[in-house]
Amino acid sequence: MPELPEVETFARALKPELVGSTILSADLRWARTLAIPSPAQFRKQVAGQKIVDVSRRAKYLVIHLKDYNLLIHLRMSGDLVIRTGKIRAEKHDRLLLHLSGNKTLAFNDTRKFGRVWLTDQPEKILSKLGLRTARKRFYSALAL
User: Fold this and answer.
1) Which of 37, 31, 63, 34 lies closest to 50, judged by CA?
2) Phi, psi (5° rounding) for residue 137?
3) Which fold has domain 4-143?
4) Is the confidence at residue 140, as pLDDT, over 90?
5) Is 90 tagged catalytic?
6) Which of 3, 6, 16, 122 is catalytic?
7) pLDDT, tens only, 57-94
8) Which helix (H) or strand (E) holds 137?
């Protein structure tokens, strides 16, 4: 499972490659990779979005788009790879984002545990992360 330093490494490596690119289309190859929205809505909303920034929050990679945020949790076996030129999907590719500049961002996940969210309200997903929430759960458990 990628740990926090590996997720930070992913974010730093992807940032210069992705920022400024535009997502031309999405090829969702396994529907359960997508947590929200529906596959049809995802394809419609993500097409034409410009990538503004790439960061990390806990173990989530956050790809900041013009109007949305693409959150990716790699879970146990997920991997993100940038491929150039004309590509064919590999066996374990779950999501392919075709980008301007003849690039493709491939989410490859052998065990199918990784998840992707496309949202304009990332705080709904990310707000439960962090020390304050963990402390609250700990003290709630003590009160039982």
Assistant:
1) 63
2) -65, -40
3) N-terminal domain of MutM-like DNA repair proteins (3.20.190)
4) no
5) no
6) 3
7) 988 999 999 999 999 999 878 889 999 998 888 899 99
8) helix 131-143
pLDDT one-digit tens code per residue, 20-34: 999 999 999 999 999
Phi/psi at 63 (nearest 5 deg)? -105, 110
Q: Where are the domains of the chain?
A: 4-143
Q: Long-range CB contacts (< 8 A, 24+ apart) of 40-49? A: 42/118, 45/118, 46/70, 46/97, 46/118, 47/23, 48/22, 48/23, 48/24, 49/22, 49/23
Kindly report the length of the chain: 144
- 47 strand-pairing partners: none
Q: Which of 2, 8, 37, 122 is catalytic?
A: 2
Active site residue 17: no
| Sequential DSSP letters for 27-66 | EESSGGGEEES-HHHHHHHHTTPBEEEEEEETTEEEEEES
